[in-house]
């Protein structure tokens, strides 16, 4: 059956007051070679490294966003400019209902 004896382990089992030996066998699949080709190993490393870099860049960007003062992140989405008189330069700003802080 192509199993190879690696080691005999004397008195390994103790069953009903009696010691028995154990035998360790091995069966090599694919001739004992790794099932992965060197190209598959390199590809796997590159994919994992790219995922690590994306995670690292994401954390750095989030840290930068947290350092921005809150007031600079708040924006009004709509405002209405109305003039009191058509010829006057006095203008008043009326905030729309959608003014909120986008965090």
Automatic annotation (TrEMBL):
Task: State the Gene Ontology terms under molecular function.
Answer: histone acetyltransferase activity; protein-N-terminal amino-acid acetyltransferase activity
* EC number in record: 2.3.1.48
Name the top EC class.
transferase
Please give the GO cellular component terms listed in this UniProt entry. Answer: Golgi membrane
Q: In the UniProt record, does the keyword Transferase occur?
A: yes
Matching InterPro entries:
NAA60-like
Where composition is biased (Basic and acidic residues), the residues are 94-103
Positions of the region Disordered? 83-103
Alphabetized UniProt keyword annotations: Acyltransferase, Chromatin regulator, Transferase
Cleavable signal peptide: none
| Domain of life of the organism encoding this protein | Eukaryota
| PANTHER family documented for this protein | N-ALPHA-ACETYLTRANSFERASE 60 (PTHR14744)
Official protein name in the record: histone acetyltransferase
Q: Which organism is it from?
A: Aegilops tauschii subsp. strangulata (Goatgrass)
